[in-house]
Amino acid sequence: MKTKIVFVCHGNICRSTMAEFLFRDMVEKKGAAERFEITSRATSTEELGNPVHPGTRRVLERIGISCKGKYAQQITGRECDDADLIVVMDGHNRRNLAPFIGSNGHKVSALLEWAGLDRDISDPWYTGNFEDTYRDVVMGLEGLWKGLSERNEK
Fold first, then answer.
1. What is the pTM of this model?
2. Active-site annotation holds for 80
3. Which of 109, 119, 140, 143 is deepest in the core (most CB within 10 A)?
4. CATH number, residue 139
Protein backbone atom coordinates (compact mmCIF):
# COMPACT_ATOMS: atom_id res chain seq x y z
CA MET A 1 0.00 0.00 0.00
CA LYS A 2 1.39 3.39 -1.02
CA THR A 3 1.74 6.36 1.31
CA LYS A 4 -0.09 9.26 -0.34
CA ILE A 5 1.55 12.62 0.29
CA VAL A 6 0.23 15.98 -0.90
CA PHE A 7 2.52 19.00 -0.61
CA VAL A 8 0.55 22.25 -0.36
CA CYS A 9 1.34 25.93 -0.79
CA HIS A 10 -0.59 28.98 -1.88
CA GLY A 11 -0.32 28.78 -5.67
CA ASN A 12 1.29 25.40 -6.46
CA ILE A 13 3.92 26.95 -8.70
CA CYS A 14 6.88 27.41 -6.33
CA ARG A 15 7.31 25.67 -2.96
CA SER A 16 4.89 22.74 -3.08
CA THR A 17 5.97 21.89 -6.62
CA MET A 18 9.61 22.04 -5.57
CA ALA A 19 8.85 19.70 -2.65
CA GLU A 20 6.90 17.30 -4.89
CA PHE A 21 9.65 16.87 -7.45
CA LEU A 22 12.51 16.81 -4.94
CA PHE A 23 10.78 14.17 -2.81
CA ARG A 24 9.98 12.06 -5.88
CA ASP A 25 13.66 12.21 -6.81
CA MET A 26 14.72 11.39 -3.25
CA VAL A 27 12.53 8.31 -2.87
CA GLU A 28 13.49 7.09 -6.33
CA LYS A 29 17.20 7.33 -5.48
CA LYS A 30 16.53 5.42 -2.25
CA GLY A 31 14.75 2.67 -4.20
CA ALA A 32 11.43 3.42 -2.51
CA ALA A 33 9.43 5.12 -5.27
CA GLU A 34 6.90 2.27 -5.36
CA ARG A 35 5.99 2.99 -1.73
CA PHE A 36 4.73 6.52 -2.39
CA GLU A 37 2.18 8.52 -4.33
CA ILE A 38 3.42 12.11 -4.33
CA THR A 39 1.70 15.22 -5.63
CA SER A 40 1.31 18.90 -4.87
CA ARG A 41 -1.60 21.32 -4.82
CA ALA A 42 -2.61 24.92 -4.12
CA THR A 43 -5.01 26.34 -1.58
CA SER A 44 -5.88 29.26 -3.87
CA THR A 45 -7.21 29.57 -7.40
CA GLU A 46 -4.86 32.38 -8.44
CA GLU A 47 -2.37 30.29 -10.41
CA LEU A 48 -4.59 27.42 -11.60
CA GLY A 49 -3.40 26.06 -14.91
CA ASN A 50 -0.12 27.96 -14.81
CA PRO A 51 3.20 26.14 -15.22
CA VAL A 52 5.88 25.90 -12.55
CA HIS A 53 7.46 29.27 -11.72
CA PRO A 54 10.68 29.86 -13.72
CA GLY A 55 12.69 30.22 -10.48
CA THR A 56 11.60 26.79 -9.23
CA ARG A 57 12.11 25.32 -12.68
CA ARG A 58 15.70 26.67 -12.79
CA VAL A 59 16.53 25.20 -9.36
CA LEU A 60 15.17 21.80 -10.35
CA GLU A 61 16.81 21.79 -13.78
CA ARG A 62 20.18 22.69 -12.22
CA ILE A 63 20.09 19.41 -10.30
CA GLY A 64 18.73 17.39 -13.22
CA ILE A 65 15.04 17.21 -12.31
CA SER A 66 12.38 17.99 -14.90
CA CYS A 67 8.99 19.34 -13.90
CA LYS A 68 7.75 19.53 -17.47
CA GLY A 69 4.00 19.08 -17.77
CA LYS A 70 3.24 20.24 -14.20
CA TYR A 71 0.50 22.85 -13.91
CA ALA A 72 -1.01 24.38 -10.79
CA GLN A 73 -4.04 22.62 -9.36
CA GLN A 74 -6.16 23.35 -6.31
CA ILE A 75 -6.53 20.73 -3.60
CA THR A 76 -9.93 19.09 -3.16
CA GLY A 77 -11.73 17.64 -0.18
CA ARG A 78 -11.48 14.21 -1.77
CA GLU A 79 -7.68 14.52 -2.01
CA CYS A 80 -7.62 15.42 1.69
CA ASP A 81 -9.70 12.33 2.43
CA ASP A 82 -7.44 10.10 0.32
CA ALA A 83 -4.09 11.50 1.51
CA ASP A 84 -2.06 9.94 4.28
CA LEU A 85 -0.08 13.16 4.79
CA ILE A 86 -0.81 16.74 3.81
CA VAL A 87 2.37 18.78 4.13
CA VAL A 88 2.08 22.58 4.08
CA MET A 89 4.82 25.14 3.57
CA ASP A 90 3.56 27.75 6.04
CA GLY A 91 0.92 28.67 8.57
CA HIS A 92 -1.20 30.52 6.01
CA ASN A 93 -1.42 27.34 3.93
CA ARG A 94 -2.59 25.42 7.00
CA ARG A 95 -5.33 27.98 7.69
CA ASN A 96 -6.34 28.14 4.01
CA LEU A 97 -6.88 24.36 3.98
CA ALA A 98 -9.92 24.76 6.24
CA PRO A 99 -12.54 24.64 3.44
CA PHE A 100 -11.05 21.39 2.12
CA ILE A 101 -9.80 19.50 5.15
CA GLY A 102 -12.99 18.39 6.93
CA SER A 103 -12.11 15.92 9.68
CA ASN A 104 -8.61 15.34 8.27
CA GLY A 105 -6.75 17.95 10.29
CA HIS A 106 -4.67 15.22 11.94
CA LYS A 107 -3.03 14.56 8.55
CA VAL A 108 -1.62 18.09 8.24
CA SER A 109 1.94 19.03 9.16
CA ALA A 110 4.34 21.78 8.16
CA LEU A 111 7.35 20.63 6.17
CA LEU A 112 9.92 22.19 8.49
CA GLU A 113 8.28 20.53 11.51
CA TRP A 114 9.76 17.30 10.11
CA ALA A 115 13.20 18.89 10.49
CA GLY A 116 12.45 19.91 14.07
CA LEU A 117 12.00 23.58 13.18
CA ASP A 118 9.16 25.90 14.14
CA ARG A 119 9.14 28.29 11.18
CA ASP A 120 7.68 28.67 7.74
CA ILE A 121 9.34 28.16 4.38
CA SER A 122 9.51 31.62 2.84
CA ASP A 123 7.56 32.08 -0.37
CA PRO A 124 10.03 32.87 -3.17
CA TRP A 125 7.18 34.46 -5.14
CA TYR A 126 7.62 37.37 -2.72
CA THR A 127 11.27 37.04 -1.68
CA GLY A 128 12.73 36.11 -5.07
CA ASN A 129 15.15 33.83 -3.22
CA PHE A 130 14.61 30.37 -4.67
CA GLU A 131 17.94 29.09 -3.31
CA ASP A 132 16.93 29.70 0.33
CA THR A 133 13.59 28.03 -0.40
CA TYR A 134 15.41 25.07 -1.97
CA ARG A 135 17.63 24.63 1.10
CA ASP A 136 14.64 24.77 3.45
CA VAL A 137 12.63 22.33 1.33
CA VAL A 138 15.53 19.87 1.22
CA MET A 139 16.00 20.13 4.99
CA GLY A 140 12.29 19.46 5.52
CA LEU A 141 12.23 16.55 3.06
CA GLU A 142 15.23 14.91 4.72
CA GLY A 143 13.37 15.13 8.04
CA LEU A 144 10.21 13.78 6.40
CA TRP A 145 12.11 10.81 4.97
CA LYS A 146 13.69 10.10 8.35
CA GLY A 147 10.34 10.37 10.13
CA LEU A 148 8.57 8.10 7.66
CA SER A 149 11.40 5.57 7.79
CA GLU A 150 11.22 5.48 11.60
CA ARG A 151 7.43 4.97 11.43
CA ASN A 152 7.86 2.04 9.03
CA GLU A 153 10.42 0.39 11.32
CA LYS A 154 7.91 0.23 14.19
1. 0.97
2. no
3. 140
4. 3.40.50.2300
